[in-house]
Amino acid sequence: MANHSLKSKRAGILRRFAGDRRGNVAIFTALAAIPLLVGAGIAIDTARASRSHNALQMAVDSAALAAAASDKVNMAGLTAAQKATRKKELEDLARNYVKSNYSDAGAEATITVDVTDTTLTVTGQKLFPTTLMSLVGYKTVDIDARAEVNLQGGISENIEIVLVMDTTGSMDQNNRLRDAKQAAKDLITTVLGEAKSDDKVKFALVPFSGSVNVGADKLNSGWIDTTGKASVSKVNFTDVNYHNMQAWNDMKYVNSKGQTVALSWNGCVEARLGNLAVTDSPPVVSTNSTTWDTLFTPYMAPDEPDSYYNTYISKTNEEKDLKGTKTDAMRQANQVKYATKTFTSLTGATGPWSNCAASAIVPLTTDRSVIEAGIDAMAARGSTVLPEGLMWGWRVMSPNMPYPEGASYTDKKWRKVLVFMTDGENDVGAGLNTLNGSYYTAYGFATAPTAKNRFGSTNASSANSQLDSKLTTACTNLKANAEPREDPKNKAKTIPSIEIYTIAFQAPAAAKTLLKSCATSESYYIDAANGTELKDAFKAIGARLKTMYLSK
């Protein structure tokens, strides 16, 4: 019985063990928990990756806007190798920006930048490390972000844009003037699109050569010296009381009706004496003789004797009323001859207008048609006096007379931009001859008497280098008026209220050096080797003046 009872107990224990389901439940529960845990891991890691992706996207967006606002985005005039270097610099800029604004687990994000004429794109890619998903073999997930900035943007601020355009005789070569006209219009289109005007945008145009034409309509403005008050108005005549405007008044012209009428001043002016030539000091209309040199003298290129550059009066009339031995200097300074001259054409290369810009300044205006008409009117003639072009560009945007349309230098609601384009260096024919030492330009003759010499030296061979110094001084003086203002593309930065862009269009090395130093910074200087690059340069400047925005 005892044995049977033990056997019976053992059999019962085995039956109870075999029938117990509690262990099976635990095993199956454990097995069933694995996909639940994986699912939870996926949810957790997905949420982590999503947060990281959002942070990366924000950093890439900011990096794209920062890169687009950078000076380095302007690639006009660069060679393929220079563009590659510039792209690398943009990628470094964007990478550092992302690194500063995005920090998360795993390796650093890979940043690439692509730039076209109209867009800048920044792409960020990163392998994001997982936690629970790694248990099933997914150790990382890809996250990426992309931001595209429309470089054409829109105008969101008040801006004055002054185009200072070289219209010297050399611009007639290789279709340079044609390309320059189109480039200027391309900048306008880049800024305005198809709009006829924008109240926030004012344009001005300053064509220049050996002198600048302010417009014949300024004759009675008060700031044109019509009575010979300014000392530079009486430099070129034997009679110390005779002056430039009197010479204009003495000459005659046969008009289209065959009538002989007084020769009208054409609007060109001469440079002022001393430091007045390189500042925007306003002309002062006063009876006080100490202010008379602030006025602007009508440009009057003297008649030069036969065999010299600008001869337009016969030798017989050049010698009218002269006594004794007659020299070339006497013939040139003889003011009596001007009353003998009657022109039948006003388009010749020689005359009192010689070496002055053929078309006039267009003051600041919101009317697109007016500025484009001024561009169309530009014609190539004359030699090169760079400081006069820059100075009249400055005077047009200055709040001072003679052009009061410019906003105050301290008005931070307005941005002032000067675009200065030339194809050459200062050239007045230095050392041209022993009589005058140069062509006649806004600065007169190189050999003018010391007291009235505007070059700063009577050494004719140094005339061009003297003008180089004048340009450098003028650029420095202009920059000194710039006030710091908020950068509309990056409110954490400031930019000068006056920005100077310079463009060397097929220009010699010496001119490039001058233009680089004149620009606001080196990134504001562009070297255009041909017409296509010139148009690209103007478009790029127009794009930089607009407020960039994220398009994708």
Protein architecture, described:
- With 552 residues, the protein is α/β, with parallel strands linked by helices.
- It folds into three domains: 23-154, no CATH class; 158-215 and 354-427 and 467-550, Rossmann fold; 220-343, no CATH class.
- Helices cover 34% and strands 18% of the residues.
- The strands form five sheets. A six-stranded mixed beta sheet has the order 11-5-4-12-15-16, sandwiched between helices. A four-stranded antiparallel beta sheet has the order 1-2-3-17.
- α4 runs antiparallel to α8.
- It is elongated, with a radius of gyration of 37 Å.
- The protein starts with a helix and ends with a strand.
- The model is unreliable at 1-14 (pLDDT under 50).
Briefly, what is this?
The chain is of the alpha/beta class and 552 residues long. The chain is built from twelve helices and 17 strands.
Structural class: alpha/beta
pLDDT below 50 for ≥5 consecutive residues: which ranges?
1-14
Over all CA atoms, what is the radius of gyration?
37 Å
Instruction: Sketch the topology as an H/E string, one letter per element.
Output: HHHEEEEHEEHEEEHHEEHHEHEEEHEHE
CATH superfamily of the largest domain: von Willebrand factor, type A domain
- Count of discrete structural domains: 3
Strand arrangement across the biggest beta sheet: 11-5-4-12-15-16
Instruction: Identify the CATH class of the largest domain.
Output: Alpha Beta
Oligomer: single chain
Q: Can you tell me the CATH architecture of the largest domain?
A: 3-Layer(aba) Sandwich
What do we call the CATH topology of the largest domain? Rossmann fold
Number of helices: 12
- Share in helix: 25-40%
Distance between the termini: 92 Å
Per DSSP E runs of 2 or more residues, the count of β-strands stands at 17
- Please, what is the average pLDDT? 88
